[in-house]
Amino acid sequence: MTAAAALAAGGLALPLAAPASAATAKADDFNGDGYKDLVVATPRAKVNGQTEAGQVTVLYGSSSGVSTSRSALLSQNVAGVPGTAEAYDRFGASYATGDLDGDGYTDLAVGVSGEDTTAPEIGIVQILWGGSTGLANGGLTVYGASGVSSAYQYGSGLAVGDFDGDGHDQLAVTGYAGVSVFDDNFTRAAAPARTELSTGSGEVNRGTGSIVSGDFDGDGADELAVSGTRDIDDDEPSGVWLGYYAGGADGMTLTEDPASVPLDVASARAAGDLDKDGYDDLVTTGQGDSGAGTIAVHYGGTGGIPGTTRSQLIDQDTTGVPGVNESGDAFGSGVSIGDVDGDGYPDAAVGAQLERVGTLQWAGAVWLLKGSAFGLTGSGAQSFTQNTAGVPGVAESSDRLGYAVRLQDLNGDGRADLTAAAPGEDVFDDNVHQADGADWVLRGSASGLTTSGAVSFSEKAFGLTYRGKSFGSVLGG
């Protein structure tokens, strides 16, 4: 069977370079060939006639970056993936990557938040094992703990980190209203023990909408930042809370609503060492003025909780950042951190999915903000839309470019490349808005992101014909 035929059939066949030893495998490198791989998920995808069963597409990296010809389609109807694709399972509602079984290959944890188990929409997590042939080594299904708050819509959010500081990756999972963390060393037959984390005030049921991991205090153990709705039992749920969980060998300790992270910019989005001082920094977002959107950088340090020493706000009115704050732009709808220009300082990609492009409402845009010894800065910032020269396609109303973004070095040149999702992109019929969805990849360079060699792809590239399902709308988390 040819690679194209295998893709059309939903199979796992793919051309692979000779794998590196497991010991030299990079993060996000499922097949151990030394190149990071890209995952784009479509939780609303129709699979074998099942509405919103969900599908994940893996594009394997190489010296020339990613190509739709080196890829695999994964769903619960693919051999080796546990379960069966069913309506509204939403396989791919979230995902995270890490070496969960300690064999040197990156594994893929996939949230299936709508899976029916003991009750409707209980949710599960499925771990697909990496190896020399990529993600073609079977998988393990993990269920939420019975009777706890995190079990409903289990797998809504995922993060991987070394939370006890012993050098092994661990998995953290959120449900609709709770957080759990697994111990080290999954096996291909069983999950290790897990701990359900408190979300604070006993009389208030906290929602858990986003989750980010990073070593913010430099102690060698990762921490968790979890945010969501302040009280989901309220008749009109509103407001955001933030839980900061300090890691360590003795377990995780919660600080609820830390004062260093103002609640109007408390939605946890990304982590990375933006000023290269040895401490990860936490990026959160908020609505800003009239929904224009803003990001906040809370710098890590010996003080523990990010922002204790210093924080900053960045939006489109920040000096050097292209554009102007406008009501409803949603600047910060997607955030990712990676070193795009190879100068050793991680940069931040920021999406504004509702940005107006000319007269086109909700066309969307993406920015690159540079890291430096002083932290994230507007100096040298770049912005891109589908109307930027060299970017494939044309901006259209409701495309929502920047809904999600991800920075990874996909071609091994030491510079992170940008993947940006536009879930509202029309693919099959320009005359009828279908929200079919597509993704764009822009390469990193010494001067930042470049449109040279930029590519875009949609479900069409994989022989898929479902419409209105927002292909590739999930790029992590």
Key features?
4-stranded antiparallel sheet, globular
Question: Could you explain the architecture of this structure?
Answer:
The protein has 1 helix and 27 strands. It has one helix spanning about 5-10; strands spanning about 40, 55-60, 70-75, 90-100, 105-110, 125-130, 140-145, 155-160, 170-175, 180, 195, 210-215, 225-230, 240-245, 255, 265-270, 280-285, 295-300, 310-315, 330-340, 345-350, 365-370, 375-385, 405-410, 415-420, 440-445, 450-460. It has a 4-stranded antiparallel sheet, with no helix packed on it. Strands 8-9-10-11 form a 4-stranded antiparallel sheet, with no helix packed on it. It is globular and about 50 Å long. The two termini are about 35 Å apart. Residues about 1-25 have low confidence and may be disordered.
Summed up:
With about 475 residues, this protein is mostly beta strands. It contains one helix and 27 strands.
